[in-house]
Design goal:
The structure is a single chain. This protein is an alpha/beta fold. It has 14 helices and 13 strands. Strands 3-2-1-4-5-6-7-8 form an eight-stranded mixed beta sheet, sandwiched between helices. Helix 2 links the parallel strand 1 and strand 2. The longest helix is centred in the middle third of the chain and has 31 residues.
Length: 441
């Protein structure tokens, strides 16, 4: 690799290419975050090259198909007409002016941050990185990641953010299934390693995003994302604990929430459920608790909420066991159908879905488990779980053949009247149903 230029001319050239709309953007990770962002940039006339390590995703996109339910083949074809294509070849990094990294940041088996997807992606980019490029990390992570992991990697290769390259952090804020806010409409928080980096990153993103929210540095941007999701995790933990208390007192927590929500100030309603799902809320709080220990801080409040939310699938399974026991049946040998595999209603995203954990816990107890989800026809590949299952059709005969049905995700597509009519036992984790054969969980 030739020695990178130390001149700021390369950044001036980048600024001109961004301003003129002639820049080329590389999106690294074409999942629920990266693909919508790629399509949005293509929509405004920016050429996008998508990178992914999964050849099946790349092949699907390059023939005009989609693997995400809410993104249609027509959406992909429009993007391809605007110059979008996908590749597994990271050497093509030389073709782009900006790399936007949208890869997973899961937890490992010890509930510690696993940044291997981020570091592996950056390490695959760097042999092909050139002066005058901009790198943006969107993956959720602990405050300091951009400064402490990415910037040193660039500097080891001769690239100094703000001098001959740019480095920013701009957290993703996608909400799958939310029809009220598109990628373009969700305000974009961004922090740069230097002021020059921030200006270039803002100029790039504002081509596609209606409102930019610049903050003082990358650490503030990283903390902003964590605060957003910890806020939700803590409040969901609170209402889940309230659900357990209300259940013991024979009080309908959903009725209580509806009543409390009539107060026009000082109360924000949160809904209890079978546990946290999605890639952000179950995981992000642990990124901060892990980093806080470096500063000698124990985040007790956050960790307590995490314990409560982690317990909820076990609570559901116990409610199922109790309900079956009242009908003189054991969990072992019972046929149990879980309704809804996605982590929330009306989408196909199963990341960290509590429904999957419920299925695993029931199977460990000897139950014969199945699932029904119109948005997820086949059980997806997962790191920690494997079920060789397909979605069950909810015919009257099928419904009545199971000893228990669990409403884990309350998709609107379910025929709740048919479920009430034909199910022997319904355990409802979402407060959707009432009836003599319905048990609230």
């Amino acid at each position: 690799m030739p020695a990178p230029s130390t001149s700021t001319n390369s950044l001036a050239d980048l600024s001109e290419r961004i301003t003129s709309g002639q820049c080329v953007i590389g999106i690294y990770g074409l999942g629920y975050v990266g693909l919508p962002l790629a399509l949005r940039f293509a929509e405004v006339g920016i050429r996008v090259l998508g990178f992914d390590i999964d050849p099946l995703k790349v092949e699907t996109l390059n023939r005009g198909g989609s693997y995400i339910e809410r993104i249609t083949s027509s959406d992909i074809e429009r993007a391809r007409a605007a110059g979008f294509s996908a590749t597994t070849d990271f050497s093509r990094t030389t073709e782009v002016d900006a790399q936007i990294i949208c890869v997973p940041t899961p937890l490992d088996e010890h509930h510690q941050p696993d940044l291997s997807y981020v570091t592996d992606t950056v390490d695959s980019i760097l042999p092909h990185f050139r002066a005058g490029q901009l790198m943006s990390l969107e993956s959720t992570t602990w405050p300091g990641t951009t400064d402490e992991l990415l910037a040193p990697r660039l500097k080891q290769c001769g690239f100094t953010p703000g001098t001959n390259c740019a480095l920013v952090y701009s957290p993703e804020r996608e909400d799958p299934g939310n029809a009220h806010f598109t990628t373009a409409q969700i305000p974009k928080v961004i922090g740069g390693v230097t002021e020059t980096c921030l200006q270039l990153g803002t100029a790039l993103y504002e081509k596609a995003i209606e409102r930019m929210v610049p903050v003082s540095n990358t650490r503030a941007a990283e903390m902003t994302k964590l605060l957003e999701n910890i806020h939700r995790a803590v409040n969901i933990g609170l209402v889940n604990e309230m659900k357990i208390v209300a259940d013991r007192m024979d009080i309908d927590i959903h009725e209580v929430i509806r009543a409390a929500a009539t107060k026009p100030f000082g109360f924000v309603p949160y809904t209890p459920g079978p546990g946290l799902g999605g890639h952000c809320i179950p995981i992000d709080p642990f990124y901060l608790t892990w980093k806080a220990k470096e500063y000698g801080i124990n985040t007790r409040f956050i960790e307590l909420a995490g314990e409560i939310n982690h317990y909820m699938p076990h609570w559901v399974v116990q409610k199922v066991a109790d309900a079956l026991n009242e009908r003189a049946k054991a969990v072992k040998g019972s046929r149990i159908l879980v309704l809804g595999l996605a982590y929330k209603k009306n989408i196909d995203d199963t990341r960290e879905s509590p429904a999957v954990e419920i299925m695993s816990l029931l199977q460990d107890k000897g139950a014969i488990v199945a699932y029904a989800d119109p948005h997820v026809p086949t059980f997806p590949r997962k790191r920690d779980y494997h079920f060789d299952l397909h979605s069950v059709e909810l015919t009257p005969d099928n419904i009545s053949s199971y000893d228990c049905l669990i409403i884990a995700t309350d998709h609107d597509a379910f025929d709740y009247q048919a479920l009430t009519t034909h199910a022997k036992l319904l355990v409802d984790t979402r407060g959707r149903m009432h009836g003599k054969n319905v048990v609230s969980a």
